[in-house]
Design goal:
By secondary structure, the chain is of the alpha/beta class. The chain has two domains: 228 residues, 3-Layer(aba) Sandwich (Rossmann fold); 35 residues, no CATH class. α2 packs across α3. The longest helix is centred in the N-terminal third of the chain and has 18 residues.
Length: 287
């Protein structure tokens, strides 16, 4: 089947991905249903192990991880050789114990051949206080950044230097005599500091804790991620006019950001009600 751009395919990601041409999209950014949390009122999908039900409703975490990773095997096939895959996934408590789902997922992805490049913390400056008193309030989620191969497309992203860095650098230059500075090559550090003081650097390499206020609801969809959250992955992982894939597109956030940044997109969604909602949202966001 030819890849139809800027369109949502209706169906289970596992089946639809099988129909899409291999090596055809530049990147994938997505947020799957979390384990044991929500009911997206999708029709039960059929899985490779014979189980049929909604992704996230499995009784055992290991079955959820396997179903999810089967879908990402399909993503890997559709992804170009220089492609990357960015997955936002949250954790679950069962019998008061944190299940470590994000890390079980990331480990299984690595077992299946993905290269894990970064664990990014999505810090939520505004989060829902749940009234727990016997542990701390969780104010972050994970984004895992994987590549298909060791060499991949990546546009470096910069953030402003902290004023404290500039102050510190102007006071503490690396001595001409030292070979090492904090375990790194002093010569390299001296050149970097000089460039910094001469105002030749546009910013520092972006860090892995991103503070972004959540936007958890759009219309009837209760798990929308914020537009801002996926701007950086799309800018870093997809060239202009390239193709962004989201196999769980929900209310269409990925498509909206891709269009704002002049990228094409392909979405997959199991619930037709959400497809209608996403299509309207994407249309309304167009200039
Ligand atoms: C966490 S939400 C994604 C939200 C999206 N990032 C947004 O901003 O709107 C997960 C979505 O996956 C859909 N879904 C669940 N199982 C699916 C499957 N097997 N294949 C495709 N989509 C599925 C759900 O209906 C839901 O809309």
């Amino acid at each position: 089947m030819d890849l139809l751009l800027n369109k949502i395919y209706e169906g289970s990601a596992l089946n639809v991905l099988n129909e899409l041409p291999e090596n055809s999209v530049n990147m994938c950014v997505t947020s799957p249903p979390y384990w044991g949390l929500r009911d997206y009122q999708t029709n039960p999908a059929k899985w490779n192990d014979g189980w049929s039900g909604e992704l996230g409703a499995e009784a055992e975490a290991k079955d959820y991880i396997n179903h999810l990773c089967d879908i990402f095997d399909g993503v890997k096939r559709v992804l170009r050789e220089d492609g990357t895959c960015w997955v936002n996934i949250g954790d679950t408590y069962k019998k008061k114990c944190l299940c470590m789902i994000p890390f079980l997922f990331a480990l299984e992805m690595v077992n299946r051949g993905w290269i894990l490049r970064n664990v990014i913390i999505w810090h939520k400056p505004r989060c829902v206080p749940l009234g727990v008193k016997d542990r701390f309030t969780v104010d972050f989620e994970y984004i895992f950044f994987f590549s298909k191969k060791p060499k991949y497309y990546f546009e470096q992203q910069l953030e402003p230097f902290k004023s404290s860095t500039l102050k510190h650098t102007s006071k503490c230059s690396v001595s001409e005599k030292s070979k090492y500075y904090q375990g790194f090559c002093a010569e390299h550090q001296r050149k970097y500091q000089q460039k910094l003081l001469n105002n030749e650097l546009k910013g520092r390499n972006k860090r892995t804790v991103w503070s972004i206020s959540p936007q958890s609801f759009h219309g009837d969809h209760t798990a929308t991620y914020p537009l801002k959250l996926i701007e950086t992955p799309i800018k870093a992982g997809c060239p202009e006019n390239g193709i962004v894939l989201d196999p769980f597109i929900g209310s269409g956030t990925t498509a909206m950001v891709a269009e704002q940044l002049n990228r094409n997109w392909v979405g997959i969604e199991l619930n037709p009600k959400y497809i209608e909602m996403a299509e309207e949202r994407i249309r309304n966001a167009r200039p």
